[in-house]
Write a structure and sequence with these properties.
The structure is a homodimer of 368-residue chains. Chain A is an alpha/beta fold. The first copy, chain A, has 14 helices and 16 strands. In chain A, β1 and β2 form a beta hairpin. The longest helix of chain A has 27 residues.
């Protein structure tokens, strides 16, 4: 079995599971730090090991363009290249070809687009996306999907779910390795299209299912409603992945609805933008309130930034020191790891709803 | 005693000593990573602890301008601010007021200069420099010196050593704490002026003596000759500090002539410019030879970057990832720490000259 359920919260759909990949076993819910180009931004993969992460997400689109998936294969695969022996999930590039190449041209064959690096014209088909992901040595691959903009109209989204169905079939057929393959449920904000797309994916049958196209500006209520709708109809014995989700409150609300796997740039990108995540809410380090503040970034001696104060981090950040970015990224990823650990414990204890209330009450108190 | 000699190499002036500050004991020769603004560039003070460094150098000029020495004092001092309980040597700012403020105006009172941060006009006297360093809580302070450009003519250098003598006297008088205070021998490339400046410093009497104005383009031969000349005349029972020195070969040649303390931006700055220091010489990571190279950055399992290849680091560097800068800085500072450890061991074993020959033969083989 790829996935087995261990615990289920009595008052919600929150669950703890065990996901097995060729690189190891991962307890879910799990948060994957984003290693788009083969490293977390601001830290090293060694730091991620120290922080206790079991799985990261890397990106087929970026690594195809640089250093090239054939080069990575010749090197011995992405695990070896990154010196990371734990699990790697790879995104197929479906989302990036649009979001990073505004002039991308889509056809039933695939997508042609200009490289965001050098403007060279490239073409990715479902078959090539799987080849890229297999050459990288991915533990969990994603199907190549048609991911329209969040504000697309009904007809465009309808087209996208039908194309995603075809591409999902071709992705599955193209697989030559024993890497796991996840389907992606699209359908935008349209309930009936989400249902149809989900039926398509279940019909093809995958090792796990992702919810795509969320967190792109549709609003929190819609995110949660779609998550709930899709999770309700997904089989209980397969892992569920909410792509690109999310903020701490989004992760908690998605776990409550039955999601197992998460990834998001928020902890790392916001660190570089000056935001520290703490149990008492977010801190904008640029705020002059924190000038020379001797309040510790965290009073837990096990915290990887223990000993550093908010005023010191602010000094480093406003002095444009690299160490500010690394320490803030470390803090934010540690915060996410602790959040996930607390979520898992609360589910095992049958107290997830209590945890949710207590956490959000403190986190959303005032600073947020 | 502030300083005691432990071992002396039989065939050179190289020596191992023990330097005591209020923060701890330091075995010399010692290399101090540069923490100009209160952090090493590219890493955190925690990383320096992990790397085993005992002392860092911070800068009175930079910390006076931002966040302000009064602020640091109110905070509880620089050790507390940086979360660094080991020793801190502070430079007096004498060098920086010139090198960073081209329009600096010097008088016998002190130096007025425009802040490199915001253009505001500031004034530093010997008395203020000592106040700044004492407010920071420095373990070893430097006198405020007049440090003319390396290509200055004889009369300007003569003026500078006389002014430095006055300022050295005023610096010593201004000291209110039990922090150690080091004199600085100036004199440029002029042997007689070096001798006069040295006599000035010995007459005033300090806890240790620095050689200033070296490594500023005078050429390696002159650096070594001046170092030898000054060291020969310095008392054996006081520590000697070669300011801003240097490259690995410069450190070795200076140790050979009797220098105990070093600091230099080379390992950290060159890391950010793409240079890796290895036992086989320097590597320019931007060189396409290293594209996808699977050669490990170091095959020592204790190396802090063990597992990462030169090709991977090159990928991160050319992808402008912060982790490239941190890992390369880590590598270079580890290289410097290992160099110093090997130097100390070779002196204790009475084999410094053998070590020097073997190290330089390998290091300067071809890549350099």
């Amino acid at each position: 079995m790829t996935f087995s359920l261990k615990n289920k919260d009595p008052k919600s759909e929150a669950r703890v599971g065990l996901l097995a990949t060729k690189s190891g076993e991962i307890e879910t819910p799990v948060f994957m730090p984003v290693c788009t180009k083969g490293t977390p931004k601001g830290l090293s993969t060694n730091n991620l090991k120290d922080l206790g992460f079991d799985m990261v997400v890397a990106n087929a689109y970026h690594l195809f363009l640089k250093p090239g998936h054939v080069n990575v294969k010749d090197y011995g695969g992405l695990h070896s290249f990154m010196d990371w022996d734990r699990s790697i999930l790879t995104d197929s590039g479906g989302f990036q070809v649009y979001s990073l190449s505004p002039s991308a041209k889509i056809s039933d064959d695939g997508v042609s687009f200009k490289s965001f690096l050098d403007g060279s014209v490239n073409f990715i088909s479902p078959e090539l996306s799987i080849e890229i992901q297999e050459y990288l040595g991915s533990d969990i691959m994603m199907i190549f999907d048609d991911c329209p903009k969040p504000d697309s109209d009904y007809s465009r989204v309808l087209e996208s779910i039908n194309r995603t169905k075809e591409w999902a079939n071709r992705s599955k057929k193209a697989r030559k390795s024993d890497s796991k393959l996840f389907g992606i449920v699209q359908g935008g904000i349209y309930e009936d299209l989400r249902k149809t797309s989900l039926d398509h994916m279940l019909e093809i049958d995958f090792d796990g299912y992702a919810i795509g196209g969320l967190g792109l500006g549709e609003g929190q209520d819609k995110t949660y409603n779609i998550t709930e709708q899709v999770c309700t109809m997904l089989p209980k014995d397969k892992p569920r992945y909410s792509m690109g989700i999310g903020k701490p409150e989004d992760i908690i609300n998605s776990v409550e609805r039955g999601v197992d796997i998460f990834d998001c740039v928020v902890p790392t990108r916001n660190a570089r933008n000056g935001t520290l995540y703490t149990k008492d809410g977010k801190i904008n380090i640029k705020n002059s309130t924190y000038n020379m503040s001797d309040k510790l970034i965290d009073d837990d001696p096990n915290h990887p930034c223990f000993g550093y104060s908010i005023g010191y981090i602010r000094h480093l950040y406003t002095s444009k020191e690299i160490s500010a970015l690394s320490l803030m990224t470390m803090n934010n990823l540690y915060f996410y790891k602790q959040l996930i650990e607390s979520i898992k414990k609360s589910i095992k204890d049958g107290k997830f709803i209590d945890f949710k209330r207590n956490f959000l009450e403190r986190y959303q108190n005032e600073s947020n």
